[in-house]
Amino acid sequence: MIKTIGILGGGQLGRMLSMAAARLGIKVHIYEPQPEPPAGDVAVRVFTAGYDDAEALRAFAKSVDLVTFEFENIPAEALDIVEAVTPVLPRRNALEISQDRMTEKAFLQKNGVVVAPYAQVDTLADLVAALATVGTPAILKTRRFGYDGKGQVKITDAAQAEETFTALAGAPAVLEQMIPFEREISIIAARNAAGEVSCFDPGENVHKDGILHTTTVPAAISHALQTDAVLLAARILNALDYVGVMGVELFVTPNGLMVNEIAPRVHNSGHWTQNACLIDQFEQHIRAIAGWPLGDGQRHSDAEMVNLLGEEANHLEQWHKYAIHMYGKAEVKLGRKMGHVNKISPKSA
């Protein structure tokens, strides 16, 4: 029986996972390089050390029954140390695939999932050749470490090749064709070790400056597309023999669904589940990795999740009618996710 779970990373996702675990009677230990992380307010124990501190990683791993993570960019060497002591879920293959955009796209294509046309870019000559095949407009993205619009540059003309390549400082990259999609949706899906899969309803996402602004449920798509999205997410989880919750971002195009990216963790676009479902994404993740049966993820209400960025966190009075979820971050920064609110209304569809 799992009594204590370790989480690599102490941000808001780790905080909300810790709260979900506590409701199930499971203790949480956090491993986070930065002092006083948001998850530290609600966890039983915090290990403050770097991902290059082998001794601290071993001590952390020995203190728990199981380890999970709240972000993808965990060094492989740190995982080697932790896995030598205790199991890590989701399994490492999902993490390795999602850490590299080229690897991720190749995996998705191998499993019959449609992705945007793309090409690998390691040199300026690669980029020039890629633009000739992929075309413009396109987006040049670093293969690793990009999030919330960081590490990517839009290209509208092939003449921008040199300045764009320079902007990413020559980092290994992938060029993706920009897809004229009708809307972006995401599926939050869970799978446990027994192969049981449960998906939340698709949410419709709106971004501002590369950062998720709102997720609305139900998404304005047909029931047929909802079914297609759920089946597609399940195919990805089963192909990975995945255990835990995953976020799958998709574009709705005139030709059907296209996967933008996958995230092997609980996801910002699934925060609406906290108030619109009996079992939210965080509890579903804890259930999955702890070996429990998955909970009922059916939606009982319509919802709109709104991210609170930067100074918006200092003006909560405008949100007093809604469910407020603050992350306990000490410093307000421009564009920083400080919390979110969930607007709930009676279920319409």
Walk me through this protein's architecture.
This protein is α+β, with helices and mostly antiparallel strands. It folds into three domains: about 5-90, 3-Layer(aba) Sandwich (Rossmann fold), CATH 3.40.50.20; about 115-175, 2-Layer Sandwich (Dna Ligase, domain 1); about 185-345, ATP-grasp fold, B domain (D-amino Acid Aminotransferase, Chain A, domain 1, 2-Layer Sandwich). The protein is about 30% helix and about 30% strand. Helix 1 packs across helix 10 (about 280-290) and helix 2 packs across helix 3. The longest helix is centred in the middle third of the chain and has 18 residues, at about 225-240.
Decide which structural class fits the backbone. alpha+beta
Tell me the fraction of residues in β-strands, as a range.
25-35%
The rough form would be described as globular
SSE order in H/E notation?
EHEEHEHHHEHEEHEEEEEHEEHHEEE
Under CATH, the topology of the largest domain can be stated as: D-amino Acid Aminotransferase, Chain A, domain 1
Report the CATH architecture of the largest domain.
2-Layer Sandwich
Mean pLDDT: 94
Structural Rg: 20 Å
Give a quick account of the main beta sheet: strands, pairing sense, barrel closure: 9 strands, antiparallel
Give the CATH superfamily of the largest domain: ATP-grasp fold, B domain
- Please tally the helical runs, counting DSSP H or I stretches of 4 or more residues: 10
Total domain units: 3
Helix content: 25-40%
* N→C terminal distance: 39 Å
Number of strands: 17
